[in-house]
Amino acid sequence: VHQLLEGELGPPGEEEEEEGVEKRRRLHRLQHGQCSYTFILPELDGGGGSHGAVVQRDSPPADGEWSAEKLKRLESTMENNTLWPLENSIQRNTRREAAGLQSHAVHNQTATMLEIGTNLLTHTAEQTRKLNVVEAKVLNHTSRIEIQLLENSLSTNKLEKELLLQTSEIDRLRDKNSVLESKVRMLESQQKGELEDMKEEKNRLQHGDQHHRYTHTHQHGDQPHRSTHTHQPLLHPFAAGSPRWSHMWKDCADVYRSGYSTSGLYHIYIGNRTEPVQVYCDMETSGGGWTVFQRRFNGSVDFQRGWGEYRTGFGDVFGEHWLGNEALYQLSSQGQYSLRVELRDWEGNSAYGGFSFTFKLHGTAGRQSSLNTLGTGFSTRDHDNDNCDHCKCALMLTGGWWFDACGFSNLNGIYYNVGHNIRKLNGIKWHHFRGPSYSLRSTMMMVRPYDF
């Protein structure tokens, strides 16, 4: 016990050390008997007389004096007094040692976990740093690619704009050249007509002069006879130098039958008009003889007009124009006419064969002109005659046209250039050629007698 208290329990604290010293002293006194003890023993059973309690001091009892029972009781008392403090001390030291061991184990485990956590954090930080470096490289590379794509896009847009400008300029020059060619052909045809008129007048004058000389020299008898007849040459209806449009043609087919086969500007007399109407005659397409009443090819003329302008007509006969509903009505009232529609898209495709049909324009001049095959009235933004109660097609689709509930065609819509002509419901459209939202490049509408 002394070894256990001094060695195995380890060095105690100051208070514990003083307590241990005191315990060892008590234990030593019990073991070696250095101190004096006084025992009060009970009286012996069967003892006679007046002997009282025997008190003995500082000397061991005599042999055989104590009974076995008393010795056992004394040993038990001593054992209890000796072992109880020792067990308590051992238990306290054991608990302290267990607590110390548990604390040490927890401390070691905590240190181990901290070390593992530190290693993980270090590894994670390194991985994060590497990921940040990779991400920065990717972002830099992506930024360079985006900048390059943006530069390429800007260059492409610039080239597209330049190409569009060049295309527009080429189209403008082509259209101007076409107008000039038409004027040249018209002048050539005019000169040809005037030359033919001059030749005819010359032949007539020569024939008249010969006839005058013949009647003057052939007299009755031999005596000279003075003729009382004064010759007045009959003037040709188209004297030399008179313009070719002074003929009383009723349409371009009539002009063609008169021998003029060059496309250009002509004057015709239609209905009961006393003044001629300027028209463009197409003498080349499908045999010629066509009177053009609508033409569009460059967007130079605004077709967003009211009822009055569509009635009288507008534009340049050599360029884009609308002949006029009143003139068109009077023209179609002269007989049965065929309509031909020429269409061309921005890809160079053309269509016309499927759009030629026989029709009769009818209606009240100044109020309505309609295509009999469509069965619809002509509408403008200020004069609604479409087959739709609440549509207002002329306002939504623009221009003036024979709108059948805003149907499949409108050749007088807004003119859109290439690149802007897709998904335009209010453009120049013909559904059965390029669909309902493709705005065409050029159109031409013309008529001639059905029996031409």
TrEMBL record:
One of its GO terms (cellular component) is extracellular region. Residues 1-24, 187-233 are annotated as: Disordered. SUPFAM superfamilies: Fibrinogen C-terminal domain-like. PROSITE patterns: FIBRINOGEN_C_1, FIBRINOGEN_C_2. It comes from the Eukaryota. Residues 1-12 have a biased composition (Low complexity). SMART domains: FBG (SM00186). Its main location: secreted. Residues 187-212 have a biased composition (Basic and acidic residues). InterPro entries: ANG-1/2/4, FIB_ANG-like, Fibrinogen-like_C, Fibrinogen_a/b/g_C_1, Fibrinogen_a/b/g_C_dom, Fibrinogen_CS. Residues 243-451 form the Fibrinogen C-terminal domain. It is found in: Secreted. Keywords: Angiogenesis, Coiled coil, Disulfide bond, Glycoprotein, Secreted, Signal. Coiled coil: none annotated. GO terms for biological process: angiogenesis; blood coagulation. This is Angiopoietin 4. It comes from Salarias fasciatus.
